[in-house]
Amino acid sequence: MAEQSVRWGILATGGIAAAFAADLVDLPDAELVAVASRNEESARAFAERFGIPRAYGDWESLAKDGDIDVVYVATPHSAHRVAAGLCLEAGRNVLCEKPFTLNLREAEELVGSARERGRFLMEAMWMYCNPLIRRLKALVDDGAIGEVRTVQADFGLAGPFPPAHRLRDPALGGGALLDLGVYPVSFAHLLLGAPSDVTARATLSAEGVDLQTGALLSFGDGALASVHCSIVGGTSVSASVTGSRGRIDIPDGFFHPDRFVLHRDGRAPEEFAADPADGPRSSLRHEAKEVMRALRAGETESPLVPLDGTLAVMRTLDAIRERIGVRYPGELDTGASYAPAP
Questions:
Q1: Which residues of 92-127 are buried (b: 16+ CB within 10 A; e: fewer)?
Q2: Which among 14, 150, 212, 323 has most CB atoms closer than 10 A?
Q3: How does pLDDT run across 168-180, given as a tens digit for each residue?
Q4: What distance in Å separates the CA atoms of residue 55 and residue 44, rounded to the nearest whole number?
Q5: Which residues are marked as active site?
Q6: How far apart are CA 130 and CA 120, in angstroms?
């Protein structure tokens, strides 16, 4: 029996919106019914490209479209609070791109709105939905490498990005940390939970955003996570998890891997490769499928990307920005001390 079709709306028409739309088109139980942009011409062009029946030149019309089951918010992250909030207030379910918001305060407002209204809300942390990452997580949870002692992850792009680029623009939440560093931080959270302490250093641009940032996350059981991100140097985009009885290495593209290697003490290395049936490593289909599964099950959040976990990551990102001195226009002080969620 075919699954009931889930009707999607897409808010924004940039590159990530196009990638998501292309993957939705390939899912037989997904129906892309509407798209919105603040530029009506852009919305119409996007709709024509993907065969979408309705195109709106404003966000409000999409939010009020009762034929939509869930809205994918694909704006720059500086607009996530407003865009996702508008949809939630209109009664829509929401999948919101990462980083979830600019800061913890905005994230808490969105989560509060969703929970108050009984609406589904999920951060589009596609890494958590990736089948190979889920396999890695299961191995770690089952004790394949013993107690986790260290996590290392990096994500750097060579650039150079001119000052006018969105990655250098404070008004758009620019810098390496929120755009790229959210992946290493989220990877550490996936395996170790929320840290008990955060230290960080960064190189800042003339505009006041971080060009590269390194952070050390400390955990109550003595574990450590070292994370790095950069928009001035291309890194290996690799990750490693070391335990008391072995380690797991992801040699390339750790947030959407095609393989990882398990090293267990006294045993030959074991390679785990992605299943070709899961599609290309860049596919966003897994997070879309998880949203649709949750909606059909009547769930208001995903166990793979729980809202409390998203809030914990935002709390850590706030702490790192506090340490390196990055503020965005109009943003309230995030506070000088770090404390994990109670």
A1: bbbbbbbbbbbbbebbeebbebbeebebbbbbbbbb
A2: 212
A3: 999 999 999 999 9
A4: 5
A5: 98
A6: 20
